[in-house]
Amino acid sequence: MAMEDQPDNSGACIDRQPDTVLHRGGLIHVGGHGCRTGPSAAPAGIRVLKRNMKRVGSRGCLTRKNRFGSRERDWLRSDTQRGCVCLYGGTVDPQLPASGPQASSALQPDLQLVLCSTSTTVEEMCAQRDGQGLFVQLHGDLLRRLEPTERPLQMLYDYLAVMGYADPVRVQHEAANSDLSCLIRFYSERPVNADQQERTLLKGVFSVRKGKTQLHKWAERQVILCGTCLIVASVKDSLTGKMHILPLVGGKVEEVKRRQNCLMFSSAGSQAQTYFVNFDTLAEYQRWHRQASKVVSQTVSLVDLSCYSLEAVPEYLFYSQDVTHLNLRHNFMSLLGPGGLLHLPRFSQLKSLNLSHNRLGVFPECVCEILSLTELCLSCNNLHTVPVQIGNLQSLQTLSLDGNHLSSLPAELGGLSQLSSLGLSFNDFNHIPPVLERLSAVDKLSMAGNQVMCLEVCALLRMSHLKHIDLRLNGLRCVKSESPEAVTQLTHLDLRDNCLDSLDLTSICSLETLLCQRNQLRALTIDGFALRMLHAGSNRLSAVSVYPVPNQLTYLDLSQNILEHLPDWVCDCRNMEMLDVTHNLLAELPCRLLNSLSLKTLLAGNNHLHRLPDLLDHIPLEVLDLQHNKLGELPESLFFKALNLKHLNASANNLESIPPSGQSDDSLSTLQELYLTRNNLNENCGALLVGHHNLRVLHMAYNQMLSFPASKLSKLELLEELNLSGNKLKSIPSTVSSCKKLHTLIAHSNHINVFPEILNLPEIKLVDLSCNELTEIQLPESLPPSLQELDLTGNSSLMLEHKTLNLFNHITTLKLDQKSTATGDSQNASAPWSHGYSEMSGQRNKLCVSVLAIDRLGDSLEACYGIFDGDRNEEVPRLLQCTMGDVLCEEVQHSTIDSVYMSNTFLTSHRKLGTVGQKLGASALLCYIHHESSEPGGYLSVTVANVGTCQAVLCRDGRPVALSKVYSLENCTEEMERVKLSKAIITEDNKVSGVTCCSRLLGCSYLSPWVLPKPWVHTEPLSSQDDFLILGNRALFEHVSYQEAVCTVQAVRDPRAAAKRLCTLAQSYGCKDNIGAVVVALNIAEDSCTCEPHVYTAEPRGPPPVPVTVSMTPAPSDTGTLSSTSGVVSEFNSETSASEVGSEAGSTASDEHPTSGGAPRPERRCSLHPAATSCGIMVPGSVGLGSHMALFQRQPSCATFSSNHSDNGLDSDDETPLEGVISNGSKVEVEVDIHCCAFQLRSGAPESLKEADFEKRGSDYPNGKTRRQNSVVVSATNGCLLAVCGREIADLKKSPSTSCLFGKKLPNGSVVAPEDSHNLIEVALEAPKKKSGYFTAPAQQDPDDQLIVPPCLEQEVREQLKGQSPLVSAPSAPTAPPSLKDAVWDQSQPPAQFAPSLVPGPAATPIVKPEVYDTAL
Question: For 538-542, what is the mean pLDDT?
Answer without folding.
Answer: 96
